[in-house]
Specification:
Layout: E1 6-12, H1 19-28, E2 37-44, H2 50-57, E3 65-70, H3 75-84, E4 92-95, E5 101-102, H4 106-115, E6 120-126, H5 134-138, E7 148-149, E8 152-157, H6 162-169, E9 178-180, H7 181-184, H8 198-208, E10 213-222, H9 240-258, H10 262-288, H11 295-305, H12 312-325
Parallel strand pairs: 1-2, 1-4, 2-3, 6-10
Antiparallel strand pairs: 4-9, 5-10, 6-9, 7-8, 8-10
Helix pairs in contact: 1-2, 6-8, 6-10, 8-9, 9-10, 9-11, 10-11, 10-12
Length: about 325
């Protein structure tokens, strides 16, 4: 089998030293042929220089790392910058975040699966602090429902409506994703989703480009703190309001542009109602505790969502029932 040339794209924005070095070492530890592997680190205006981190880490000899620096624009634009700077002859693109690490034979298994005619590969993983893998913990995918690939019970061809899967019970995470760049290289990450949802919409773009998904049941990533950014904003935290804005944007776009199954559309509409309730509850939570409400973000959220808002009576009922449950 011909060894495909793989580019690894890492968006970088860190305030702590030493994190990137662990990610790079995990790439080197894949023992993928150095002649067919290179890394693009996109320094997204990071307070700590990616170049200094690369120089300090000194990963295993032979790993080739290029640093591209840009003004801070967020991880989506950083990944797009990486995609714009692929070397000629690159046939596979793998994604890794700067605080995550690969384990096992991630690259070799991905290359094997893509060589069998699939165009997008993803794997099971461990979230931050977990000893139980994501597939076992979340139960969002049942591997026996998906056919084995090449007689390997740990490789499965995804079978089903991936738009519905992503929108209702997502099973893909960026640091495990590997794509056939010849087939899917025109897909790009959207702008205006710095607080969440950009990766989800990228997967939708892959689907639009005809992605044929295969996945590994083995955990091949150990995630760092960044994986929890979407879910880590609790009531009253400064990041929650903008997370709600971006999640609503993502779900509206999927509803309007990608979803076709009635069950998917119903789920998205219901989630949009929940997000509207959540925005109101978060504001009330902040007011009760004497915290400042970002009314500009509130106005932005409802100006974007009012055209899609269900009956006011339903929204009001949900708000007050939720308030009652918190007493």
């Amino acid at each position: 089998m011909v060894t495909p040339k793989i580019a690894v794209i890492i968006p970088f924005f860190q305030r702590q030293t030493g994190i990137l070095g662990r990610a790079l070492q995990s790439i080197a530890d894949q023992h993928y042929p150095n002649s067919s592997l290179y890394v693009i680190v996109v320094d997204d205006g990071s307070p700590i220089s990616a170049e200094s981190e690369v120089m300090a880490s000194m990963p295993s000899a032979g790993l080739r790392v290029t640093v591209i620096r840009q003004a801070n624009a967020g991880p989506n634009e950083a990944r797009n910058t990486g995609l714009k700077n692929l070397e000629p002859g690159t046939s596979v693109v793998a994604y890794l975040d700067s605080d995550d690490e690969w384990v096992g034979d991630h690259l070799a298994r991905a290359a094997k699966a893509l060589a069998l005619g699939y165009t997008a590969y993803f794997a099971n993983l461990y979230h931050l602090g977990d000893d139980i893998d994501e597939f076992t913990k979340a139960k969002r995918v049942h591997p026996p429902d998906h056919p084995m690939v090449d007689g390997d019970p740990t490789l499965r061809a995804y079978q089903g409506d991936m738009v519905h899967q992503i929108a209702t019970a997502n099973i893909i995470f960026m640091p495990s994703l590997v794509i056939d760049s010849a087939a899917l290289g025109e897909a790009r990450f959207p702008l205006a989703h710095r607080h969440g949802g950009g990766d989800y919409l990228y997967w939708m773009h892959l689907i639009q480009h005809g992605a044929k998904f295969v996945f590994s049941t083995l955990p091949e990533v150990r995630c760092g703190r960044g994986i929890n950014m979407w879910y880590g904003s609790g009531w009253g935290t400064d990041g929650l309001a903008m997370r709600l804005v971006d999640e609503a944007r993502f779900r509206r776009k999927v509803l309007m542009q990608h979803a076709s199954a009635p069950a998917t559309k119903d789920n998205l509409r219901n989630r949009l109602v929940e997000l509207q309730v959540g925005m109101i509850l978060d504001s009330l939570h902040r007011i009760r505790r004497g915290k400042k409400v970002n009314w500009k973000v509130m106005r932005l959220f409802f100006s974007e969502n009012i055209p899609n808002m269900p009956m006011l009576a339903k929204l009001t009922s949900l708000v007050f029932s939720r308030l009652g449950s918190k007493k």
